[in-house]
Amino acid sequence: LTCMEFSAWRISPRLDTWEYCQLGGFLPSSPITVSESRSSSQVAGEKSVADVTVLLKQVVHYLQRLLGTVLESWDSMNDFAKLGNARPSHTPKSCPISHEYSITDQVLGLGINGKVVECFHRETGAKYALKVLRDSVKARREVNLHWRASNCKHIVSIVDVFENVYASNRCLLVVMECMEGGELFQRIQDRAEGAFTEREAAEIVRDICMAVAHLHRMDIAHRDLKPENLLYSKADATGVLKLTDFGFAKETTSFNSLQTPCYTPYYVAPEVLGPERYDKSCDMWSLGVIMYILLCGFPPFYSNHGLAISPGMKKRIRAGQYDFPNPEWKNVSQDAKDLIRGLLRTDPTQRLNIEEVLANKWIAKYTEVPQTPLHSIRILREEGDQWPDVQEEMTQALATMRVDYDTIQLKKLADTNNRLLTKRRQQAPHN
Fold it and tell me: Which residues form the Protein kinase domain (predicted)?
């Protein structure tokens, strides 16, 4: 290319040359200098220094837009590059939290394992959210996993951790960024004007995928991915969607082959034996449910906006009983429906993993997703009184899908009555 084109101007790479062409004019085959004498047969119009000034302003504006696009793409690439990089482990502070923060009685929310209250940094006055957990092995696991994962843009960040006596109990006090933008679906429901489009839904799902990918690359399964755990950092348009509450989060790489949940580790279904694949697939199922609700306003395990299609959540999930009814789904793209089908497969080993979802064009090229207006806002508003029931159903569904090895009785191989192992013991040479 010998020049860069925009509008009616064509700018040569040389700073002392420029080209201009009006509609119907004739553009020279080679650049010409401003000071060069030109004939009317060669150039469409004589341009003054003022024209060049206008041209340069247009160039600057164009380059600013181009730079903004490049920086935005760079930030996105940088976010992807950081996925899976854990923060170093953190040792809780033993000094009283009151030395650094003032705590109010304002309750901001309730997590699985503790309440969240408002607090302020004494020196800066910055507002934070304080989560109070009874000190235990499980609580320390939650805090450790959340701390290590909280360097991701789409995961709520932990600022400080203290181990103090609070309300006469030994507690972990977790200082986190304050999420002031509200829950995901409440924010959509509260939109004052404008349609909610499929492209916007794709961008939201992509943001959630970034959080899930960060965790899964660290071999952490969140296991409680649901709408109320997806919060916006701010109430205005600059708010970032973030995942919180690691009360059920668990590392998925370790498995001690010398003990197993009432099975020997040699011949057992993957979803029973392998927490890595099964627990992560639980997150993928949740992602599919959230995506479904975003696109229509009601969950896949219901029909007619709240009427159960079978008696019991577990049965509905296992049977894969959902469809894409009209009119809500009539104009939603086939790409979106296909992605949901891949996420809601009944066999957890066959569900899409997070890398496959990130590579899916509905996510990877979300800016090209059609801006089709969705029915989501209308349905969420009309069925607002039933939303707590939907949340409870999803909570119960996640509970049935989790394989929590902390609560399952483990049996040592020496105590196992498996016939194969008994035969092998009898055949083994004795010392």
Answer: 102-363
Residues 287-337: tens digit of each pLDDT = 999 999 999 988 887 544 444 434 555 566 667 778 899 999 999 999 999
DSSP state of 132: E
pLDDT tens string 138-184: 999 999 999 999 999 999 999 999 999 977 889 999 999 999 999 99
The position carrying tokens 């304050």 is 178
CA distances from 124 to 28, 119, 177, 190, 234 (A): 63, 12, 14, 32, 19
- Regarding whether 263 and 119 lie in a shared domain, the answer is no
Q: 131 labelled as ligand-binding?
A: yes
User: Is the model's pLDDT at 6 over the cut of 70?
Assistant: no
Asked if 224 is an active-site residue, the reply is yes
- Burial class for 227, CB neighbours closer than 10 Å (0-12, 13-18, 19+): buried
User: Over 60: is that where the pLDDT of 203 sits?
Assistant: yes
Ramachandran angles phi, psi of 198, nearest 5° = -65, -35
Question: Kindly report the CA angle at 282 between 337 and 207, in degrees rounded to 5?
Answer: 60
**Strand segments (E) across 304-343:** 307-308
Tokens for 281, please give them: 């697939």
Same domain? 191 vs 153: no
311 in a structural domain: yes
- The sign of the torsion formed by the CA atoms of 189, 191, 197, 202 equals negative
Identify whether 405 is part of a domain.
yes
Alpha-carbon distance of 160 to 176, in angstroms, equals 7
Nearest CA among 372, 371, 375 for reference residue 294? 375
192 and 162 inside one domain: no
Identify whether the C-beta of residue 284 lies closer than 8 Å to the C-beta of residue 205.
no
The count of C-alpha atoms lying within 13 angstroms of the C-alpha of 331, restricted to the half-sphere facing its C-beta, is 12
User: Does a structural domain hold residue 91?
Assistant: no
**Do 382 and 302 belong together in one domain?**
yes
Structure tokens at 85: 């990089």
Residues in the chain: 431
Which tokens go with 363? 């996510």
Cβ pair 130, 136 in contact under 8 A:
no
pLDDT of residue 427: 55
Spot the catalytic one: 224, 245, 279, 283.
224
Reported as a pLDDT band with limits 50, 70 and 90, residue 386 is low
Q: Are 243 and 225 in contact (CB under 8 A)?
A: yes
- Examine the fold and report which residue of 143, 177, 211 is the final residue of a domain before the chain moves on: 177
